[in-house]
Design brief:
With 74 residues, this protein is an all-alpha fold. It is built from two helices and no strands. Helix 1 packs across helix 2.
Amino acid sequence: AALRRSSSFEKRVRRDTTKALEDAQQSPRCMCKIPAAGGCRNCLQQDVVDRLRKAGHNAAVCRSKWRSSPDIPA
């Protein structure tokens, strides 16, 4: 497989996502009806999305289910 250079936009998204995830893990906010001690996965995902939006990205959590097929594995 050929390696491709990342664009400056891709590098920025990757950098901002890494920072958002690290910050979210440092101060977990679980806002569920039954909060988890270290924060739950859903709240962590939403926290990262919120931080990415504040950084100027158009971010959202995808809730669709991926189904494998012989042509396109999961």
